[in-house]
Every structure is written in C-alpha cells, then in structure tokens.
Amino acid sequence: MTMNKLLLSTALSLGLALPSVAATVAEGDKLAENQNYTYWLLDAIKSMDPQINTDVEGSGVLRSLFEGLYNEDQKGALVPGVATGFDLSEDKTVYTFKLRDNAKWSNGDPVTANDFVYSWRRLADPKTASEYAWYMELMQVKNSAAVIAGEVPPDQLGVKAIDDLTLEVTIEAPLPYFPKMLTHASTFPVNQKALEANGDKWTEAGTLVGNGAYVLKEHILGEKVVMEPNPNYWDNENTVIQKITALTINDVNAALTRYLSGELDRVDIPAGQYPTLKEQYPDQATSVPQSCSYIYMFNMDEAKGPAALKDIRVRKALSYAIDRDIVVEKILQGGQAPSYNWTHAATEGFAMPEIDYAKWTQEERLAKAKELLVEAGFGPDNPLKLTLNYNTSEDHKKIAIAVQQFWKGIGVDLTLNNMEWKVHTDKMQNQDFEVARYAWCGDYNEASTYLDLFTSYSGHNNGKFFSEEYDKLMKESKTAADPNPMYTQAEQILAKNMPMAPIYQYTKVEMIKPDMRGMGQENLMQNWYVKDMYRVAQ
Amino acid sequence: MITYILKRLAIAVPTLLFLIIVSFLLMHAAPGGPFTQERQVPAAVLANLNAKYGLDQPLWRQLASYIWGIVAHFDFGPSFIYKDRTVNEIIAQGFPVTLTYGTISFVVAVITGVGLGVAAAIYQNSWLDYLAVGISIGAQVLPNFVMAPLLLLTFTWWLGWLPGGGWEGGQWQYMVMPVIALATSYMASIARLTRASMLEVLTSNHIRTARAKGLPESRVILKHALKPALLPVLSYLGPAFVSMITGSVVVDFFFSTGGIGKSFVDSALNRDYAVMLGITILVGALTIAFNLVVDILYAWIDPKIRY
Predict the structure, then answer these.
(1) Domain identity same for A413 and A524
(2) A146, A23: one domain
(3) How far is B278 from chain A (nearest CA, A)?
(4) What is the pLDDT of residues B39-55, one digit of tens each?
(5) Chain A residues with CB inside 8 Å of B148's CB?
(6) Which of A337, A407, A514, A529 has the most neighbouring CB atoms within 10 Å?
(7) Minimal-distance CA residue of chain A relative to B39
C-alpha cells in the first residue's frame, strides 16, 4: 500500500509546525491576575465517561478533562490533539495517525495508540451499552455495526495499534469528513488501568484519570463541577485559566441574574432579552451562528400520516404561510436567521441552493399558499384541520401560537398539543403525530450531518419522507471528491418536496464577561476549549 | 400504646409495597423510556442498553428483582440517566441537603406561624390581627416560584448581600433564600390554622374558668389555651414536615441546592425508573413515620385520646 502524505488544511499544517496551539495570547493582551473561569450549565452533568456521555454540556466538560486525536481552533478548523498528523491510503479507507510522544495521562503514564484502540472498542462493545455507540457507525469504522450488534467480538473493530505512537483506523468506505469527526467527545481515550481499578466509580473526582488540560477536583451532582490544570498535560505551560467552575442553574433567568451580579463569566440569554441586554451591555451580549436548525416536521407515513399531508400542495402551503421574520424578530429576538432550507447556512463548504419561496415577499407566499390549498380541495366549507405536537418550553409554545395564527390566515385550523419531552419524542419516533416541532444540531461541521436525516434509511427520518432520487444522491455524495454540489441538489429536492417546514437557524446568544478571550465563538459547532481561554487585565 | 405502634408499623409494610407496585406500573405505562432520545438509538444499541439494565425482562420480574435488591442488600439500583451513580448515592448526596434546609424552614415556619396566629387571636380585630392575617394571606398567595426569583433579584442582584445559589456544604449564606422561599407559605397556613383554633379555644369554658379564678392572662394563654389550640395544627405539621424535608423542586430549581426535590421531578421526566422509585419509597416511608409521630404526640397533648 502506498501512502501519500495528506495535509488536512492550512490550519493543520500550521498546527504541525507550531509546537503550541493552546491559549495563544494575542499580541498586546496583558493577562489579568485572576485567571478563574466560571460558566453556566443548564443541567447536572449526567456522566464524565466519554463513552457514556450523550450531552452537549457533558462534552464541554469532557473537552477539558480529555483530549482526542484532534482539537478545534477558534474558528473550528482542526488542530492536532494527541495526533500530530496522519497518512491516508490511496483508496482513502485506511488512516494512519501519528501520535505525539509527549502526551501523558494525569497519572503520568504515556498516552498510547492502545488507549485509543481500547476506548473505541469500548464505545462499540455491547457490554458498554453506550448510547453513542452509533457514532462509530457514523464514522464508518470497519465492522462497527457488527460489533455493536454483538455479531463479532469488539477486537474485530477496524482500529489497531501498529506501535505505541501509531494508530491505524480502517473505514468501510471513503469518508471525506472523517477527520472532522475525531473531535467528538465519544472518541476520546480513557485510561484502561483507572477503569479496571475503580469500575463504575472511575469518573469520580480523585479517581478520574484523563489526558486533557484539566483534572477533576470536585463534582457535586446538580451543583457544580470544579477543574484545575493538569500538570502532566503535554501543553500545560500554555494553559492560562487556573480554575474552571461549572455551576448548574436550572433556571435560565436565575442564571442571568447571577451573571449580572458577577457570579458567572458566561451564560445563555433567555429568548427575547437579547435586544435589551445588547443595549445595556454592548460589550457583553453576543449572538453568533450555531449549527442547529428548527423545523416543523410533517408526518408523511404511509399508514399513520394524515391524508392531507401526503399532498405536496398542502405541505407547500403550510410552509409558505409561516412568517419566519416574525418568529425571529418578534419572538426569539436573538439574531436567529429565518430559514427556508434544512442545513445551517454557515456550515463549512455548503452552498445554499436557489430556493424560490425564500425570495418571495410574505404577501406572495400567502397568496400562493391560499391558491395551493384551494387546489388541494380545502376551503371555508372544508377547512383543513391539523394538530401540532411540541414539547414543553416557553419558546416552542410562543412559536406554536404564532404558527397557529399564520395558518389560521390561510384557513387551516391547527390544534396545539403540548407534551413533555419524552412523550413528544416517543410519539415522533412512532409516527404518532401530524405536524411536530423538531430541531437538529450538527454532529460535525459538514452538511451531511443534516442531510443524511432525510434519507429513507436514516433512523431519524420520523416524518417518513421517501425519495429514491434523494437517497441516491446522498449515497453518491459519500464517495464524491467534492460532495457539496450534491448537498445543494439534495436541498433542492427537499424544497421541492417540503417534507418539513424550515423555520429558523440557531444562534448562540450569550453574555460573556468583556475580559474573557479565546471563547471559540466563531466555531459554528460551539466547541470551545478552556485551555485556549484567558482573561485580560482591564 | 406499644401494641398500637406495632400495629401501625405492621400496616406500613404492605402500604409501602402497594406504593412501590403502583408507582412502578404507572412509570412503565408512561410513553417513552430512559433511553428515548432525540437521537434515536439504533435497535442493536437499544437492545444492549435494555439488557444491561434488565429492562428486557418481563415487568413482574423487573419488579421482583427490584424489591429483592432492596430487601436483601438495601440496594435501590443504578440510575439509568446519571450512569456514574447509583440511586443510593443520589439520595445520599441530595437528601442531607433537603433535610437540612427543610428542617430549618420547618422550625422557622412553626415559630413564626404559631407566633403570628396566637398574637392575632389574642388581639382579635385589632391592627395586630389585621397585620398578621394580612401577612399570612400575602404569603399564601405569593407562590414560591414567584418568590424565589424575587428574592434572587433583591438579595443577589440589587443588594448584593447573598450568593445567588449553590450549597457549598451548607454555609448559612446559601441557606437564607431557600429557607425563606420554602418556609413562607407553610408559615402562612400555620398562622391561619393557629389563629382559628386559638379563637375557638379562647371562648371555651375551661378558659373562662381559668380567667374567673384570677390567673394572669399570660398563664391562661400559655398553660391552658395554647396546648389544645395546637391540636389541629399538629395534624397539619406531620405531612408538612415530610414535604419540607423531602425537598422542594422550586427551591432546588432556582437556588441550585442539589437537593432531591429536583432529582425527583427529573427522574419522572427522564424515566429514570430506579431513582423515581427510590425517592418515592423515601417519601412514602417518611410520611408513614411522621403520621405515626403526630398520632403519638396527639395522645401526649390531649389526655382524652387513648389508643
């Protein structure tokens, strides 16, 4: 097998050349004396085990305690983590990662390729029963599906250690965005010795062994997580923040009050409060794009979907009638973008297709919507009746009420059905709904993380949209040299078939103390690394 | 008396068992399960999860092994959601917190509530009465989910006197707002109950006799009126104490105390079956215990009551 050196991107080659990537203090910045950082968690951290965690907030903590093969820089580009680079085989299915020789666990042991082999097998192993085992399948690691299903033992997984510092990963088929997936917390290594010594208790403060820039000092469920620098971390000399405290505050408004009284350095802004806060604290209130998309899904299931929603004219009319500008400007007010497609517009490499109704005025959309409904046979004598399911949340409720009014304008009688989260999810997954609120956040910064969802073979296609053309396109995109034109085409198919009504694309709306730097806000995935942060003297 | 207590304890066992079975069945009847997620887990993974947590067994078997775990090892099982922790650990961490702020709230509520009630009854229809009744009605109509954010805005943001939340091992600064938020509405109920029953007692014959024989008013109130007046209050205090020490969702939610009130609600929403059942059993057992305590106190306060 001939290997050809692959330079991932300019950022990566720069990262290779520069020894330090952490907390690059910008020129002219004078560091503050206080280098403590306190941030907000909405909920208790469910697990500190990389292969067990399923939460975004948990991943944030894991990025401090552990380090995967790659990290992301301030803008989301890959930079070396434990790996310093890789070779890719000619058929693009075998990645050979070179690991740095100075990476250490917090107990002083070196981090080796075997640690990754152990951890990845652990993620797929049925015995671990990880809820993120499917991520190995998403990464297309060879034999992952069979391992997860228990058909072959975990040692058959396509990952092996050539030597202590060389890791070889075999994937089923070429996957252009494979390296990007390596920053995901579920791929972080765990220390076999610590796990075997402490069993399920290995994640407690004091026994947790990690390879990240920080070590766990304290974890009180539902109250706080405290972390301090890991002296054994290979780049510890460039770690600036000396203490991380993550406080769980379940009420967003209470969290904001505590931020304003100086207890927190970073907090989310509750919906509707951004304009006022921006006026009062122009140096602290921020709104940046975040890779999530909010939609109303239509149930097109053969057996369970309502007949009306099988008519493309009805789906189009419903989508046209939603005034997205009102939703983002009057309800959310946090700089969110009105949306007419599925993939978040800021996704790397993604070219937004021409979508006709995106350019119309709302009057034009309404006129067209009314016309389509009449064509479909609905009118004052025969009004279209639908129900909308949404899960408990003030924002979802406000949007639902607005949509109810929008649709009333075209003669649709919408009943709102509020339910708790688990019931909502269960009903969606069983096609037990007509229209349902849904949102999806990208797992990695590439359009397929969105578009795969509407393939007929996706496990998340709850509305049961089915298009052979779409499936074919998405399958072909996996091996294409440049899949982005195909993604644009796929979006056009979605716009043509309207299996859902796009509503808005997320922004991360936050308050951040003005002396904080290196917060990684330009990273669309909102994957920040505390090791890159620092406080400047004011 | 002893036979009575033993009898009551004997009834407690089937009561708890009934509670477990009903909660268990209701929980499993609710749509969705602990592993229902937006990112639907693939069938193979779900099967692995169910196997690991025994959810692939028939219901009766899950129930039987759950009860056996408690009886034989006092093991309430693992949390399905907080996977690094067992139910015993979650309760061991959260219950002391709620027990502490709950007990303090209880003492505060009883002292201020009884005080207000007695004062209002003695000086009936005076300004003091109106003030006491006014305070207790005000406290009653101001629910704690309104009061908690108001406290936070006042003491943390505006005055800057108190930290906005957390527990920090139970330092007093962290307890002030939770106690006020929790105690207030109980105080109001206690004050109204005390006032009403005190008014009734004060017009009764034995008080007239006490006054007629020339006892000082303070002695009449403290020695002869207060004890019987507290009887109806006492029956309210038993369940009130249990609900205070088993936590308040609102307090945990707004002040991040880490108590079990929040865990209880979360466990139901998350379908974290074992945690939900564990806390149900705790609350159930405490309710039974404190109802018994109240009944015993009744006999002590009112010599007419005999078991």
Answers:
(1) no
(2) yes
(3) 17
(4) 788 888 889 889 988 99
(5) 254
(6) A529
(7) A460
